[in-house]
Design goal:
Strand content: 35-45%
Amino acid sequence: SKYLVIYARSELAEQTTPSSTVVVESIASVSAISFTDRDLDADELGGTVSWTAPASPERVQHYITYLASSPAGVARSQVGDDVTVGTTMSYVIPDTKLAAFSHVVVYTRSALAEQSTPMPYSIVDNNATVYNIDVP
């Protein structure tokens, strides 16, 4: 276990018996992220991002989905609002510009902070073009 101890000190002396508390480090990341681009225009995205909740979500309050330019969440842009625990999906609205984004990343957020390392998913920009249309 890890402890945080605090000693009080005055000009005369330092406390001999500190106050202490146990430090609990929790890891709660989502897994099994999936995203299928349903916007069939080139360089545009749209569709549902889904994931599996952490095995121990006790401290998790929200999930936050971003488009990012790397698996580490660099140059990210939030997609929609924070999602509460119990929901395991968010939506990328159609016609969202792909820009320099290469990944969807999902972070968990506790009452204290957003996790520092997201879970990534590589974006595949689906597009469909129709050719040789004859109108009689």
